Amino acid sequence: MSRTSFNTNWFYRPKTSIFADVRGQAEAGTPVHLPHDAIISLERRADAPSGAAGAFFPTGAFEYRRTFEVPAEWSDKHVALEFEGVYRDAMIYVNGAFVAQRPNGYAGFIVSLDGYLRYGEENTIRVDARAHDDSRWYTGAGIYREVHLWVLDHVHIAERGGIRITTPDVEDERAVVAVATKVKNTGTATKTVQVKTAILDPNGLEVGHEESRITVLPQSEGVVRQRIYVTSPQRWSVDSPTLYAATSELTSDTGTMEARSTSFGIRTLQLDPAHGLRINGETVKLRGACIHHDNGILGAATFADAEERRVVLLKEAGFNAIRSSHNPMTAAMLDACDRHGVLVMDETFDMWAESKNPFDYSLAFPEWWERDVEAMIENDFNHPSVVIYSIGNEIPETGNPIGSQLGRQLAEKIRSLDETRFVTNGINGFVSALAQVSALIAQAAEEPPTEENADGGVNALMGSADDFMDQIVGSPVVTEATAESFAMLDIVGLNYGDVRYELEAREHPNRIIVGTETFPSRIDANWKLVTENPHVIGDFTWSGWDYIGEVGVGRVKYEGESMDFDGDYPWLTSWSADLDLTGHRRPMSYYRETAFGLRTTPHITVRRPSNHGREFTLGQWSWTDAVSSWSWNVEQGFPMILEVYSDAHEIELHLNGRSVARQPVGVRKAFVADFEIEFEHGTLTAIAFKNGVEVSRSELTSASDDVRLDVRPDKSELTLRDGALCFVEIELRDTDGNLVNDAERAVTVEVTGAGSLAAFGSGRPATTESFNQSSHGTYDGRVLAAVRPERAGEVQISVSAPGLATVVSTLQVREESD
């Protein structure tokens, strides 16, 4: 007996008082199959208390219940529940009695049920959770990650963090695999057991093993350490993510008590200012994406297949690294990063003791931070993809000598638990020196104009937003404020601090830098800084994947619309990302790929003609409203503004076989050629030239009026398991496969048979539509459905739209043992 799923047969309801239950006024609850986001299906309102930060969703408190039969023979076992994450302020009750709590909504934790269960009868688990004014983004609420049931002998391997694997010494001819196994005894008798560990190569062949004996006293624990030598090791890397497995058996005279398998990779990490970050001796520059934890149309619910899809699509878009912003990454996403070769910067907190919201985690930080750091390390330790830990994001205390000691405690805590990775902190110099900067602005506002400062103090200090930020972040004020916080790190993480990259090299030649958060519009200049400065190991853009909340941060602000930082209702997403909420690549993604040097084919984009002639403002997280399409519902001859992204010297446009324009690349912005031409239905071709010689070309073709539904499930067979999903991409295309992006339709998805519709929606950043309905409008000709298997058998997925032929797809669901 060991770890099994505990995700079914739950009921949830809004939290009510115990007196309402007594009076029979409370709801019985709605059946739910975990993971579950209790907020994503609720109605959004312009006056919702979460505001723009929480995407105008309501807040609330929720209650989850499940009953289960506890066999009498479990009375001689250790029984526990593992929660991968409950948002937030989780309170756990067994048979009505309080057992445990966890304030942090992102921390995994174990709840021992020993002493609380009634053996041989039915037992009740209740979990309370709540979300209210506690975050700067959409969090969801409830048991949004998976739950597992552990049933073990009293002598057992610790549930979380029980097996820790490192590869401290790696050479071409052999590698040392060091395995530390924590054995616990929750019983009343001293026990002697054997720990057997075997190392399996990627083909499942045993390449090393070791056996060790350990005696464990009652109510205590011990660690077995084994060094196993693997010859001719295959190393894990971004380009070759080779994984080994360690099988661990706990045995006694009566046989095997427990067996587990742990995936790991053999690789080395090095760091120095001359070579930057090296993996297996080779320098790797981090092409990074910051991401939030929500899964788009699924809300906060964490499904393994959704996490893997995100990792795959981000890597296909040119990223080789992910920063989990601003909370520890899920186990499922770490597994996917291991398999696909994506590096991870895993982050602890968005705040320490200084709050950013009235009821956020700062209220629990002083008491809980150490346990939450331990939980993150337990989750990450065996994952070769994890190379950097971040102790925070834009923490105000980093500019305070006393407050910064919290950072030192965090960093040293991590090092005491894991010496194999590097420690950073996402420090925003403006935030760190906010008090000093505010004083300078106030002082400048009172200064009379001078010849050097003809417009007055504040205007001269601020200039443009970019200039102002650079002036502050690069100033001696920030240098002084952050000196101690920078010095305690292995890698100095800078949020929007690219102005300091070369400054730090001059003043601190031993210092290593990473851009923990950067403006997407600056990737051309920032990547040049990364590649030309060995001490700068990478860039993490804000953001890689669009997310719910912080709405409209990256929107284009047109004349007559709100100029506020956030968007107004019904804005739903940030709209600051390379990939939209459904995983579709936006134009800035192709621009970034070109800036990274990974793309040589020109990418054609067209600004939406509906906004032609309107004055607009681009924010620091914005991109233009360009779309890669030549299918537009406009008159022939309508003026169209084009942006073509390329690393070539010149771009020539051909329209229906004739040359209509030729422009140099990089006049307005690096890697961009700008055009204005008249619309004409047909084929638009962009030809890239270097030194007058054609090097590549691409084209867009206008769609015909013969529209059809193009339905593409991402798999035809699915195993019935936790975290399983089939994603169905649905697009409007003509018979030649050209996307119809300028004629939106309402699409309906009906799922019957052995599955259900988990979510359905588009990437539209401002909408009143929800993701829990069977009908949804397309955005730029696209929608996405997520189908969840419920039992073995066949799933029928029927997709329809007014005036179009219905398309039916089938999905086979098989038992996991098949």
From TrEMBL:
Pfam families in alphabetical order: DUF4982 (PF16355), Glyco_hydro2_C5 (PF18565), Glyco_hydro_2 (PF00703), Glyco_hydro_2_C (PF02836), Glyco_hydro_2_N (PF02837)
Family: Belongs to the glycosyl hydrolase 2 family.
Keywords: Glycosidase, Hydrolase
Domain Glycoside hydrolase family 2 catalytic: 277-428
Domain Glycosyl hydrolases family 2 sugar binding: 61-150
Protein name (Swiss-Prot/TrEMBL): Glycoside hydrolase family 2 TIM barrel-domain containing protein
Residue ranges constituting the DUF4982 domain according to the UniProt record: 642-695
Sequence ranges assigned to domain Glycoside hydrolase family 2 immunoglobulin-like beta-sandwich in this UniProt record: 163-267
Residues covered by the Glycoside hydrolase family domain: 709-806
Organism: Populibacterium corticicola
GO molecular function: hydrolase activity
Gene3D superfamilies named among the record's database cross-references: Galactose-binding domain-like (2.60.120.260), Glycosidases (3.20.20.80), Immunoglobulins (2.60.40.10)
InterPro entries assigned: Beta-gal/glucu_dom_sf (IPR036156), DUF4982 (IPR032311), Galactose-bd-like_sf (IPR008979), GH (IPR017853), GH2_Domain-Containing (IPR051913), Glyco_hydro2_dom5 (IPR040605), Glyco_hydro_2 (IPR006101), Glyco_hydro_2_cat (IPR006103)
